[in-house]
Specification:
- The structure is a single chain.
- The chain contains nine helices and 16 strands.
- It is α/β, with parallel strands linked by helices and about 350 residues long.
- Strands 1, 2, 3, 4, 13, 14, 15 and 16 form an eight-stranded mixed sheet that branches. It has a six-stranded mixed sheet with strand order 6-7-9-10-12-11.
């Protein structure tokens, strides 16, 4: 009997080439994109207080835009408390507990408390704010019951992307009195720059995206101060991917500082300012960033004008085009690289 003929080497190779193999290379999975929206300063003073009679509608037409992002952050420039224990300062703010409901209804995920009004009614008021926000499922950062909590980031995960968010105040109004300590509640201060930088660098090691929201600058000045620029550079060097600031109450420029996206200030989102005249504190905007990996691949600026009620009003048409153009020009005095030169769509509709 003739033994069965075995296939030759060439036939065997051809057979294997046509057969699926378990080790066949799979296409690389694309990195997930995360959309993050940022708004400016928020309080509920004066005429804005009336909006809390219906907290679900307080942010008006801005709410759908804020809610549409995967994550949304604003600077909460008021304590949420019923206490009447004002600190020794000129402007003292306070909001009814319904303010926490208003934040949650607008889709705001977390708020910075590192600012010069979060402790307007002392440490008790700060504690009330943290309690009210968390009860409404709104996160807080930039302040805490001790120095460790104050400098600790708010953390979350979106589509497998680990995000850490910090708040630091660079405003010297009652800074010594309000600084968090080992056994006292307070805020994370940027004046302790080494501590702030170390916190950001530590978060870089075990998070995919690091965001910092500083409270800084000179009120009414559309160009960042040297102190702002120096801090932005140190935060970027420490590993911050996105830096979005507040405090000037006017728009300040945005752009790239190396690989870090920096927006120095977004003005007032929900505020008692009105009108279009200097210092333009009624002009604001919502900045929506699309992030892939550690890189902002798209940035959209939606111009906002504070209405007569204090509620944000979204600009459209020619007025929006002019506002976007004006905002884009602020990149120059911010001394940032112009992202509009790439395909990011900065300031796009």
């Amino acid at each position: 009997m003739t033994p069965p003929r075995l296939p030759g080497r060439a036939a065997l190779i051809a057979t294997l080439a046509l057969s699926p193999v378990a080790c066949e290379a799979q296409p690389a999975r694309p990195e997930p994109e995360v959309v993050i929206a940022f708004g400016g300063d928020v309080h509920f003073e004066g005429r804005v207080q009336r909006l809390l009679t219906d907290p679900g509608s307080a942010f008006g037409p801005a709410a759908p835009l804020l809610s549409a992002a995967d994550l949304t952050f604003v600077n909460l420039e008021t304590p949420i408390t019923r206490r009447d224990e004002p600190e020794p300062k000129r402007y003292v703010f306070r909001a009814d507990p319904a303010a926490a409901t208003a934040l949650q209804a607008a889709g705001i995920d977390a708020v910075s408390l590192a600012n010069n009004h979060a402790m307007d009614h002392g440490r008790g008021g700060l504690t009330d704010t943290i309690t009210a926000a968390r009860a409404a499922r709104v996160g807080v950062f930039g302040a805490g019951q001790d120095i460790g909590e104050a400098y600790r980031p708010w953390r979350t995960e979106v589509r497998g992307v680990r995000v850490a968010v910090f708040g630091f105040s660079q405003v010297d109004d009652l800074a010594d009195r309000w600084t968090a300590g080992p056994d006292r509640a307070g805020m994370a201060m940027a004046f302790d720059t080494d501590r702030a930088v170390r916190a950001v660098a530590a978060a870089r090691t075990d998070n995919d995206l690091v965001v910092v929201m500083p409270h800084w600058g000179v009120e009414g000045d559309q160009c960042p101060s040297r102190e702002q620029q120096d801090l932005a550079r140190r935060l970027a060097d420490a590993g911050a991917d996105i830096v979005v600031g507040a405090h000037a109450h006017v728009l300040q420029g945005a752009g790239r500082l190396g690989s870090t996206f920096v927006a120095y200030g977004l003005g007032n989102l929900l505020w008692y300012s009105s009108g279009l005249f200097p210092p333009f504190s009624a002009r604001s905007g919502i900045l929506t960033l699309t992030v892939r990996g550690r890189t902002v691949v798209r940035s959209d600026f939606t111009p906002v004008l504070t209405s007569d009620s204090g509620r944000p009003q979204l600009l459209t048409g020619a007025r929006a085009d002019i506002a976007r153009h004006n905002y884009a020009t602020l990149t120059r005095c911010a001394e940032l690289a112009d992202p509009a030169a790439d395909s990011s769509g900065l300031f796009g509709p």
